[in-house]
């Protein structure tokens, strides 16, 4: 929504596919390596052959700029705008993974959060 780059990847669970091989020239990602969590810059010696063997099964993409989070469910990132998000589903996701996610997502994230009760 705010177009900030990059989004932070928080992996809750990942699936390994050891049979996958690198079939393209490295680096596969143009600007940012999500596997390492850093800019690529001039470094073209990236671990793409390791990265292609994994999928994030459950996790979150998080924008530190605006506080917005997007769930990754069954290897699919749900990158919907706020008005198309389903509050009940998002809150169920947060409740399920609240012990594995940063508090800034669980209690302050947008568009929905499990606001702390005082």
Description:
This protein is α+β, with helices and mostly antiparallel strands. It has a domain of 65 residues. The chain contains three helices and six strands. It has a four-stranded antiparallel beta sheet with strand order 1-4-5-6, with helices on one face. The protein has a two-stranded antiparallel ribbon with strand order 2-3. Strand 5 and strand 6 form a beta hairpin. The relative contact order is 0.19. The mean pLDDT is 93.
What key phrases describe this protein's structure?
118 residues, alpha+beta, four-stranded antiparallel beta sheet, two-stranded antiparallel sheet, 3 helices, 16% helix, globular
Oligomeric state of this protein: single chain
**The biggest beta sheet, please?**
4 strands, antiparallel
The assigned structural class equals alpha+beta
How are the strands of the biggest sheet laid out side by side? Answer: 1-4-5-6
Number of contiguous helices: 3
Quick overview of this protein structure:
The chain is of the alpha+beta class and 118 residues long. It has helices at residues 48-51, 87-97, 103-106, and strands at residues 8-16, 32-33, 38-39, 54-62, 69-73, 76-77. It has a 4-stranded antiparallel β-sheet, with helices on one face. The chain has a two-stranded antiparallel ribbon with strand order 2-3.
Describe the secondary structure blueprint for this structure:
Blueprint lengths: L7 E9 L15 E2 L4 E2 L8 H4 L2 E9 L6 E5 L2 E2 L9 H11 L5 H4 L12
Antiparallel strand pairs: 1-4, 2-3, 4-5, 5-6
């Amino acid at each position: 929504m705010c177009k900030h780059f990059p989004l932070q990847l928080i992996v809750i669970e990942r699936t390994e596919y050891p049979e996958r091989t690198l079939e393209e020239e490295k680096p596969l990602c143009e600007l940012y390596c999500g596997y390492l969590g850093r800019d690529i810059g001039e470094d073209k010696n990236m671990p793409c052959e390791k990265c292609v063997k994994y999928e994030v099964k459950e996790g979150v993409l998080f924008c530190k700029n605006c506080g917005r989070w997007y769930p990754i469910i069954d290897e699919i990132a749900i990158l919907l705008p706020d008005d198309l998000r389903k509050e009940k589903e998002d809150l169920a996701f947060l409740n399920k993974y609240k012990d594995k996610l940063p508090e800034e997502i669980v209690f302050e994230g947008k568009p929905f959060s499990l606001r702390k009760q005082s």
